[in-house]
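Hi, here's the filled form for the chain we discussed.

Project: internal
Contact: R.S.
Residues: 504
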Amino acid sequence: MANEQNMQPAQPTQAEMNELLRVRREKLAELQNAGNDPFMQVKFDRDHFTTDIHEHFDELEGKTVRLAGRMMSKRIMGKASFSDMTDRYGRLQLYIKRDTIGVENYQAYKKLDIGDLIGVEGEVFRTQKGEISVAVTELTLLSKNLIPLPEKWHGLKDTDTRYRQRYVDLIINPEVRDTFEKRSKIVREIRNFMDSRGFMEVETPCLNTIPGGAAARPFITHHNALDIDMYMRIATELHLKRLIVGGMEQVYEIGRIFRNEGMDTRHNPEFTTIELYQAYTDYHGMMDITEDMVVHVCEKVLGTTKVTYQGTELDFSKGWKRVTMAEAVKEYSGLDFMAMSPEEALEAVKARGLEIEKGKDSWGDLMALCYDEYVEHNLIQPTFITDYPVEVSPLAKRKPSDPRLTERFECFVYGRELCNAFSELNDPIDQRGRFERQVELRNMGDDEASMMDEDFLTALEYGMPPTGGMGMGIDRLVMFLTDSASIRDVLLFPTMKPLGAEQQ
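And the returned structure, exactly as it came back:
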């Protein structure tokens, strides 16, 4: 390996890069002065992609095809040369012969740069070494590359540069393109699944006068015409529930969510979720539909329900484990909250030395604290954690058998939350009390606590049927199904601090 590394060409110095940039602009000026401005090309009719040639070679051998894409290599060999061209689907070798395209055109080809966009017409054949290729008869420069691409040995490996210049990342690293092709298929199959179940896709506002539906810090903006502050949505939940009140019964939305919070490998200030709501079902129905949806997506996109994520095999096949929060806390911490009074729970948690936030020392808050501390990271295979305390579930319906708890679940995979769901709270009186509790927390400094939403309470007073709802992070699902370590690997343009911004 050391010998290989020693053979690798060094990255160009800044002076060398400046020279390369100068030469490419001189080539452009030369073309423009000769009346061959590549930026004036407006259309190229292609009839095949590179994968067509590879997959249907027997049918296409000897036939003329037209292709367009980016030139990724150039190997000059006297009177004949080879280049590799890529398009959105793959890569193909081109054979360019002086006697075929003419001396003038061959000289023009030799002046092309790696990264130039070209259109070619030629005959499909196989070289003596067996490589499927196209013997070019016509070659057209369609657009000029003015900044040299990263050379093939070093590539574009710096993650910060890759995220900032995704356009270069997609050119250089074909596996990145594969990830986003897969993401597109995942979203498409989610829609197919939801539509097949009778759900209707809807759109709700991104700008809200009250942020609601989640515990999160919102982005605040100002509407000049109305002269009011507004909030980018932190969830789609409350508007979708209004539609259930209106009788739409089965709705879902796939859309962007905005939360003004920290960034790490699992969090970006804007991300994509699906939220769905169905009248006349409960959180058990939501568990079933969640499991069925993920299984459907795995089978349609990957062809299997078993995937490897960061070296660990995850099994998404039917039969996900279901366990209550209290049972999970007891299993991993030894604390049996169901057998403890609020006072006993407080003493037990203090004895463990856990930090208790101000205003969050109730029985339910303490159980949720122990869950976060002792349980979450142990949940590797898909697991539904059910029956959350009412204190941490302001929008979920209470369990009839134990009003301290709610009919809520979260699904965890690889120690990470994948989705959140409830039997939705449809009692406007109880909901008002929950909102009042959130307002108290907000007044105590919790800027993630909910505000009072009078219009939503009015909607509930008109009557909302028993309803199940679920929200899933699509980016998280894509991460699992593409073996991506960071959320930035599945976002085409993740949020980045501007270059040159003062370090905080």
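Let me know if anything looks off before we file it.
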